[in-house]
Amino acid sequence: MSNGADAAILDADAARSATDTRRAAIRAAGTGFSIGRMLAVTRKELRSYFAFPLVYVLSGVFLVLAGYYAYTDLVFFVTIAFAHDIMQNYWSLLFTDIRLCLLLTLPFITMRLFAEERKLGTIELLYTYPLRDGEVLGGKYLASVAIFFMMLVLTMLYPIFLYTVHSFPLFPLAAAYLGLFLMGCAFIACGVFISSLCESQVMAGMGTIVLLLLFWILNWNEAAFGNSYLELLRAFSLFDQFGPFAKGVINLANVTYFIFFIAFFLFLSQRSMEARKWTGRR
User: Fold this and answer.
1) Distance in angstroms (rounded) separating the CA atoms of residues 15 and 282
2) If pLDDT is split at 50, 70 and 90, which confidence band does 274 have?
3) pLDDT digits over 208-235, tens only?
């Protein structure tokens, strides 16, 4: 028992020593937060992503699912839909379906960010580099956003093809893509936080899905709540905030919600990184 306590104390001292050494190096360099150092972490993470097949598999799964919904939703509206603006209704249904594709793929993009390094022991080496926690966090987050952006750009092939067949207003499509991008960035921020807590990549991925599902189903059982509580739950429901974007409407309140959601989970991630100083956790 005593040996275990001594080992925990030594681990905590080692973590604090590595952090102090790193911060001393940053102070000696006379620099604060550096965009250049953050982008160096981003490049390192992107090289790591593309060195393994996982990102290709997940991108393929996402594009196959998105393509399936793009085709089946279009067939649905061509076959049985009668409305003044069929394309607007089509975009609304399509992007509502694609959000499910993001829920099933993005958590597995973010699961490795901290969990893999903690499992392999390389996170200790990372913390000895002359990098601030914010630079490490920002670099990892931007790398995941870059992968997500690449996946999102590839889905633009579907509306481009439709536009060559029949022109349509572009603003509703742009609004839907903006909403999808903000939602994806929110998913990634949540995934980064869960990964910072876990040593298992699988646990990080599944934990992220469970937490995001919680934000999805907050107001499913409407009969169990009064109107006042229901409105409050809708205000926190991640997927309800996406609804106006899917309908071609850019609402400042919805944009603000996603920005605060992203900032909140990145804040929690940085606090999780700093917790190692007093817990001895790697």
Assistant:
1) 7
2) confident
3) 999 988 888 765 555 445 555 666 666 6
Burial class (CB in 10 A: 0-12, 13-18, 19+), 263: exposed
Total domains present in the chain: 1
Tokens 């992968």, located at residue: 147
CA 227 to CA 220: how far, in whole Å? 13
Question: The whole model's pTM is what?
Answer: 0.83
Q: For residue 52, which of 117, 133, 112 has the smallest C-alpha distance? A: 112
**Structural domain span for residue 75:** 2-279
Pick the closest to residue 205 from 103, 123, 97 (CA basis): 103
